[in-house]
Amino acid sequence: MARVVLEHLTKIFDQRKGNIIRAVDDVSLTVEEKELLVLVGPSGCGKTTTLRLIAGLEEPTGGTISIDGEIISDLTPKERDIAMVFQNFALYPHMSGYENIAFGLKLRKYPKAEIEQRVKEAAQLLDLTGCLDRKPSELSGGQRQRLALGRAIVRKPRVFLLDEPLSNLDAPMRLQMRAEIARLHHRLGSTMIYVTHDQIEAMNLGDRIAVMKDGALHQVGDPMTIYQRPPNMFVAGFIGSPPMNFFRGTVVQNGAGVFFQENMRNGEAGKSNYRLRLDEEDAARMSNSISKEVVLGIRPENIRETGSTPDAAGDHIVEGIAELIMPIGSETHLHLASGAHSFIVRVPPSTKVAVNQKIPVVFEMRHAHFFDPTTQNRIT
Question: Which of 80, 143, 278, 355 is most buried, taking the most CB atoms under 10 A from its CB?
Answer without folding.
Answer: 278
